[in-house]
């Protein structure tokens, strides 16, 4: 099986309710049913991922319902998959560190009259972490940052706060404290 299927099996065994548990079933929510692919190209068993009911799983369920306006469908599908994986791995920690659903799944508010070239994902300062993963895993999560490891091995630090709207320092003369 693949790495993702193994992760789901581990998560399922750690998070799933067992008959002897005294947990209240109303406190859980099924995020999704996932059919895993076998290495021979066929389909394996159906895996049910169970996570605590919280605003993250509610946000993911809302996102799963439909593709947001001005977002390419392939990016939406990837975001849903990344959101499932992130919540299975980091959901509890993100909640404990105070991350909000909008900081994970948020998008730029669509203007009243968007330009023909408007792209919702072009505003880094208003885009949640999950939209930026694009299949890459989060390898560390703190109160203010998330580390994303790319296929190349490089690690990008996503900043929860103080995200520049215009790019790096120096893109604007205001960054230098002088008027021209």
Structural commentary:
- By secondary structure, this protein is an alpha+beta fold.
- It has two domains: 1-16 and 26-53, no CATH class; 54-109 and 120-168, no CATH class.
- The chain has helices at 3-15, 55-65, 73-96, 101-105, 129-133, and strands at residues 28-37, 43-52, 138-141, 145-149, 155-159.
- It has a three-stranded antiparallel beta sheet with strand order 3-4-5, with helices on one face. It has a two-stranded antiparallel ribbon with strand order 1-2.
- Strand 3 (138-141) and strand 4 (145-149) form a beta hairpin.
- The longest helix has 24 residues, at 73-96.
- The N and C termini lie far apart (61 Å).
Assembly type of the chains comes to single chain
Could you give a short account of the major beta sheet? 3 strands, antiparallel
Strand order of the largest sheet: 3-4-5
Radius of gyration: 19 Å
Number of strands: 5
Distance between the termini: 61 Å
Q: Please count the helical segments.
A: 5
Strand percentage lies at 15-25%
As for the number of domains, it is 2
Compile the SSE list and pairings:
Elements: H1 3-15, E1 28-37, E2 43-52, H2 55-65, H3 73-96, H4 101-105, H5 129-133, E3 138-141, E4 145-149, E5 155-159
Antiparallel strand pairs: 1-2, 3-4, 4-5
Helix pairs in contact: 2-3
Protein traits:
5 helices, alpha+beta, single chain, 3-stranded antiparallel β-sheet, 180 residues
Give a brief outline of the structure.
The protein is an alpha+beta fold. It is built from five helices and five strands.
